[in-house]
Amino acid sequence: MNIKRSSSLMLRHFYLIRSSFPRIFDLIYWPTVQIILWGFVSKFFTMHSDYFNNVAGVILSAAILYDFLFRSSISYNMLFLEEIWSRNIINLFVSPLKISEIILALTSSALIRTMIGLVPAALIAIPLFGISIFELGLPLILLLFSLYLFGVTLGLLVTAGLVRFGPSFENVAWASLFFIAPLGCIYYPVEILPNWVQPIALGLPLAHIFEEMRNILVNQSVDFKNIYYAIGLNFIYLTFAISIFYKSFSSAKQKGTLVNIGE
Amino acid sequence: MKRIEVKNLKKQFNTIEAVKGINFQINQSETLALLGPNGCGKTTTIGMLLGLITPTSGNIFINEQELNYKNHQFLSIMNFASPYVELPKKLTVLENLKVYGRMYLIKNLKDKIDQLVEDLNLKSFLNKRTGELSSGQKNRVSLAKSLINDPKILLLDEPTASLDPDTGDYVRSYLEKYKQENDISILLASHNMDEVTRLSDDVLMMKEGQIIDHGKAKELIDKHGRDTLEQVFLKLVREKNEH
Questions:
Q1: Cβ separation of A95 and B100 shorter than 8 Å?
Q2: Across the interface, do A256 and B11 touch by the CB < 8 Å criterion?
Q3: Is the pLDDT assigned to residue A120 strictly greater than 90?
Q4: Which of A182, B145, B155, B231 could connect to B226 by a Cys-Cys bridge, CB 3.0–4.6 Å?
Q5: Number of H helices, E strands in chain B
Q6: Whole-number Cα distances in Å, B218 to B68, B172, B194, B226
Q7: Which chain A residues are closer than 8 Å to B85 by Cβ?
Q8: Nearest CB neighbour to B13, from listed A2, A96, A256
Q9: Which long-range contacts does A132-140 make (Cβ < 8 Å, 24+ apart)?
């Protein structure tokens, strides 16, 4: 793997974002809207609920973290879709770029795009609602890392679909996270789910990540078991997603669909 | 030296045999034109040479080394240009050349870009977004991208399609000059028979996945008793259809 070659693809997306105010605005706008919306919902619960006294913090933190996951996955898909839409994808495939270098470039660029969206939204929540996700402390880094891995995993799987089936798979890119959100236990504990669904939810890293986020905010303690589970599960899913990505390339070459991917 | 050698190359998509065991070679400093009607297997053949399509059987040798579809290093000595493949529209010409120069690990990239800008007359729109350029300008930028790595093998798919005669002639003249100076081998797919006659050393006529004739343009014209290559093309394609 050559970092310089991989960075060329990152540079391409940096140029694209730098030159387009609507793109920068779009990256910041949606996370901010999410935070404001959920901030008011949380405030309402605070005034009308005695379930626990940190309900606003819990819901808003969940919204911020979920948005981080959403952005990292969608950013991944967007970077690939940009290449298809601009009819540039063949130029990439006929260059010496390796698949591993494409994955590295998309993964790094997606992180930058996601941070552009997350940081302003997280900062806005502090003066507006008096809530800071930074209260999660150092474990926040592990939670974000875990969410990012899962976002990249989903991004890889959807991108593999785009490679294999072409732009018609685009709709799945947008819907992918909505499919998985109910099982992710983002805004509620795993116990809320029906008994038979709970093992499925616990098989996803998301349930462990958001469980731990609530644990930290409500109990003011850290259960590293949840974090380790989440990271462990993430590596299993990520390995699976990478192998699917390679397989879809190989299959697209067999079927000849790479040649027509931009059409 | 054989830059490209293709032996009994076949590609089958489900029940359709797109390429039926073709053989050809392109030597150093030679231009081979691939002619044929739409759907004859030209794009599939180019796709296999570029590693975009895995052949069903047969062999491809690049610089006398068998092409390994798992190792894409052979692509560092090749490049490709087609009006049907575009560069990112929102990036300026300079940004696009920087991105691709980096992708091909070009040393002294600034010097290389300066040279291409000079040779292909890109200076006046170097900082303009690629999407805002005219077809002729885009075509020259696409050509610059395809030469950024000083390729030993250049694959061109209808390089002058949709260009006005003046710009088309400019591109053809540039390719002739570039080939003479840089010892490059070119595979040219085109429907423009005058272009093929002017640029190619050898012509392959394809139809229904097979090579139906080959030779120098002049030889083919004489052999078939016609006045132009276009007449030869029409004769061969229609002859076969009548059978």
A1: yes
A2: yes
A3: no
A4: B231
A5: 8, 10
A6: 36, 19, 12, 10
A7: 87-88, 90-91, 262
A8: A256
A9: A133/A60, A133/A61, A133/A64, A133/A65, A135/A57, A135/A61, A135/A217, A136/A61, A136/A213, A136/A216, A136/A217, A137/A216, A137/A222, A139/A212, A139/A216, A139/A222, A139/A227
Which of A20, A88, A259 lies at the smallest CB-CB distance from B87?
Answer: A88
CB distance B54–A250 less than 8 Å?
yes
Nearest to A161 by CA among A261, A33, A56: A261
Tens digits of residue pLDDT in A49-85: 655 556 667 788 888 888 888 888 888 888 888 888 8
Please answer yes or no on whether B85 and A259 come within 8 Å at the CB atom.
Answer: no
Cα B23 from Cα B18, distance rounded (Å): 14
A15 chain-B contacts, CB cut-off 8 A: 88, 90-92, 95, 99
CB distance from A254 to chain B under 8 Å? yes
Q: What percent of chain B has pLDDT over 70?
A: 97
Rounded Cα–Cα distance for residues A84 and A79 (Å): 9
Q: Chain A within 8 Å of B53 (Cβ-Cβ)? A: yes
Residue A44 has pLDDT above 60, yes or no: no
164-203 of B, contacting A, C-beta below 8 A:
none
The answer to whether the CB atoms of B85 and A262 lie below 8 A apart is yes
- Interface pTM, i.e. ipTM: 0.89
Q: What is the pLDDT of residue A30?
A: 72
Q: Pick from A198, A200, A182, A179: which is nearest to A190 by CA?
A: A198
Query: Does the distance separating the beta carbons of A253 and B51 come in below 8 Å?
Result: yes
What residue segments make up the domains of chain B, in order of their start?
Answer: 2-227
CB contact under 8 A, A5 and B76: no
Domain covering B2-227, topology: Rossmann fold (3.40.50)
pLDDT tens for the 243 residues of chain B, in order: 889 999 999 999 988 999 999 999 999 999 999 998 888 899 999 999 999 999 999 999 998 888 876 667 889 999 999 888 889 998 999 999 999 999 999 999 999 999 999 988 899 999 999 999 998 899 899 999 999 999 999 999 988 887 788 888 888 898 999 998 888 999 999 888 888 999 999 999 999 999 999 999 899 999 988 888 888 888 888 875 554
